[in-house]
Specification:
By secondary structure, the protein is of the alpha+beta class. It has 2 domains: about 1-170, Ribosomal Protein S5, domain 2 (2-Layer Sandwich), CATH 3.30.230; about 175-310, GHMP kinase, C-terminal domain (Alpha-Beta Plaits, 2-Layer Sandwich). Helices cover about 45% and strands about 25% of the residues. It has 9 helices and 10 strands. It has helices at about 55-75, 100-115, 125-140, 145-150, 190-205, 205-225, 230-245, 255-265, 290-300; strands spanning about 1-15, 25-40, 45-50, 85-90, 155-160, 165-170, 175-185, 270-275, 280-285, 305-310. Strands 1, 2, 3, 4, 5 and 6 form a 6-stranded mixed β-sheet that branches. The protein binds (R)-mevalonate (MEV). The site of (R)-mevalonate has 14 residues, from helix 4 and helix 5.
């Protein structure tokens, strides 16, 4: 039996733009997916998914999940077919699009498989395997999700578009900050969202060029504001980032409603987090009181929420 865990994440700045080599900022949330794997059980690959969260999420991701397993076994050089294999998934990270559920499970499973087969993979290797697995879910992933799922923390991330080492730098902040993550309840297909942005970027080079330039400046300003612990500025930049995400057409009515509720109830900033088209959003709500106010306003409208912190 092998065991492993992977962190959930929230992207604070730069989702989608990060796929194309712009910097992004993401933080682990203090919740994780756990995996237990056992080889030599019957002759099939059995998945027991006990993760809780958005209805329909697991079923809609099943084919992508199967592909991710094959990518993992291929990369690890393991011939498991016909020998039987059981994968159990659980943990306290709710499954929803936007929280890095696929990356967290990929890291957890890769760690568990490494242990079960005595491979002794270090974090760097686990991260590389999880990146390979993420291709099944995101098509052309930037690597930000699996990097946070592997290492945790609050990070500045920049993909190396030439295929070399990606840049990952820890960002230090004075103290952890409360956030609320709102779940639109809509299961999103990250792969489709990433492909859609890439297509429109090609189709409208001028419009997208200008948006991408703003997104890059915004990420640098956001890093400075986070390091200076200037939360009002961080919030304002989150709002600006949301406007850019709306312009590249990755929002949806449920996410817009959640952002509106967050802002009306005092959040310093609110935006889509992750691939959009459904999935989650994040609101910056420093202090337990503000966090509670925003979270309960969302719950009153029937949305599932997560009260957590960044920079832990
Ligand atoms: C998904 O959590 C974040 C995206 O930027 C895709 C990626 O970076 O791989 C949409």
């Amino acid at each position: 039996m092998g065991k492993g865990s992977g962190f959930g994440k929230v992207i604070l700045f730069g989702e989608h733009f990060v796929v194309h080599g712009l910097p992004g900022i993401a933080s682990a949330v203090g919740l994780a997916t756990d995996a237990i794997v056992k080889k030599g059980i019957g002759t099939e690959l059995i998945v027991k998914d006990e993760r809780k969260g958005t209805e329909g999420y697991s079923a809609s991701k099943r084919e992508q999940q199967k592909e991710s397993f094959q990518r993992m076994f291929d990369m690890m050089g393991l011939d498991w077919k016909g020998k039987g294999f059981e994968i159990w998934l659980g943990g306290d990270l709710p499954i929803m699009s936007g929280i890095g559920a696929s990356a967290a499970s990929s890291v957890a499973i890769a760690r568990a498989v490494s242990e079960e087969f005595g491979l002794d993979y270090n974090d760097e290797k686990i991260n590389a395997v999880a990146y390979e697995m993420e291709k099944a879910f995101a098509g052309n992933p930037s690597g930000i999700d699996n990097t946070v799922a592997t290492y945790g923390g609050l990070i500045w991330y920049k993909r190396n578009m030439a295929g070399g080492q990606n840049l990952m730098e820890p960002i230090k902040i004075k103290q952890p900050v409360e956030i609320v993550m709102g779940n639109s309840g809509v299961v999103a297909d990250t792969k489709k969202m990433v492909e859609g942005v890439a297509e429109r970027k090609k189709q409208f080079p001028e419009k997208y060029g200008a948006i991408f330039k703003k997104a890059e400046e915004l990420a640098f300003d956001a890093r400075k504001a986070l390091e200076a612990f200037n939360l009002n500025t961080v919030g304002k930049l989150m709002d600006d980032n949301h406007a850019l995400l709306r312009e590249i057409e990755v929002s949806c009515p449920e996410l817009e409603e959640l952002v509106k509720i967050a802002k009306e109830n005092g959040a310093l900033g609110a935006k889509i987090t992750g691939g959009g088209g459904g999935g989650g959003m994040v609101a910056l709500t420093p202090g337990k009181e503000l966090q509670e106010e925003v979270a309960s306003a969302m719950e009153e409208k029937g949305f599932q929420v997560l009260r957590t912190r960044i920079g832990v």
